[in-house]
Specification:
This protein is α/β, with parallel strands linked by helices. Helix content is 25%, strand content 19%. It has helices at residues 76-88, 110-127, 146-154, 209-224, 254-264; strands at 10-11, 28-31, 37-40, 46-50, 61-65, 73-74, 92-97, 139-144, 178-182, 199-204, 229-234. The chain is globular and about 45 Å long.
């Protein structure tokens, strides 16, 4: 890992998240047969920073939202694995723990809580950009599956912040400067809006057929809106490939394709 110290999470709302009042039960942690960690029962949304080694950062930041069907968060292959990969290449990454709308007995919704968590994470990173040596014009939102829905929604629903707020975080813009959607949920409802940021998308051709169609149609929508977009469909790849050292085939190279896109788009360099 490219960090100097082990990562520690930062609460999005130190005094409690709006809509989570009175909820004090801890997160539930489970482990798959592969030994991969999943987390559920998120009542205290947070980000965990993965920082490049001192002097190695390029000023770029990405908030990473794991998937898990809004029932849990796949923290390894759709979270920390990618964050570590990014940090090793000079990108400051933040893994987002967001509230889950579809787990049993949840009082949360995607729009009312999970999206708010993504938006708050973008504002929080922007508010501390100087501390983390981040360029406020190069902060991206990305997600896998259900997390991809949050990144896609954040690229359609954003504001410039409330300059009159007593909370310095709320004064910041919630707009991501680019978006990375890896087999996102909800893409059929996505529509680019004025100011929507450039888009990079990845999916496997063995994923759900409707998801692939929705993403192809979203590519066309962005092309028609003259917003930069790149779309990769990998043969024989199924849903949930994420990023693992054991992944075989061309799909294993998708992070490098994304990094090359960042370079092509000029996001790896400070704007002058």
């Amino acid at each position: 890992m490219g960090q100097n110290v082990a990562p520690k999470s930062i609460l999005l709302w130190p005094n409690g998240a709006p809509g989570s009042e009175g909820k004090t039960t801890p997160e539930r942690v489970s482990k798959s047969a592969r030994g991969e960690i999943s987390i559920s029962n998120v009542n205290f949304p947070s980000i965990t920073p993965y920082l490049p080694q001192t002097g190695k950062g390029n000023g770029l930041a990405i908030i990473v939202a794991p998937g898990g069907g809004d029932k849990e968060l796949k923290m390894d292959y759709e979270g920390s694995n990618f964050a570590e990969w990014l940090a090793e290449r000079g990108v400051t990454a933040f893994v987002l723990k967001y509230r889950l709308a579809k787990e049993a007995n949840s009082v949360y919704t995607v729009q009312g809580h999970a999206l708010k968590d993504m938006q708050r994470a973008i504002r929080l990173v922007r508010s501390r950009a100087k501390e983390w040596n981040i360029d406020t014009a190069r902060i991206g939102a990305m997600g896998f599956s259900a997390g991809g829905e949050l990144a896609g929604l954040a690229a359609m629903q954003f504001d410039n912040g409330n300059k009159n707020s007593a909370d310095v975080i709320e004064q910041q813009s919630s707009k991501p400067n680019f978006q990375l959607l890896v087999y996102p949920g909800g893409a059929g409802a996505f529509e680019p809006v004025k100011g929507s940021p450039p888009l990079f998308m990845v999916v496997g051709d063995q994923d759900d057929q409707q998801r692939c169609i929705d993403m192809a149609e979203l590519y066309i929508k962005y092309r028609k809106a003259n917003i930069p977009v790149e779309f990769h469909v990998f043969t024989k790849a199924v849903h949930g490939f994420g990023i693992r050292k054991t992944t075989a085939g061309a799909v294993a190279d998708w992070p490098n394709r994304f990094y090359a896109w960042l370079d092509d788009m000029g996001f790896l360099k400070q704007a002058h």
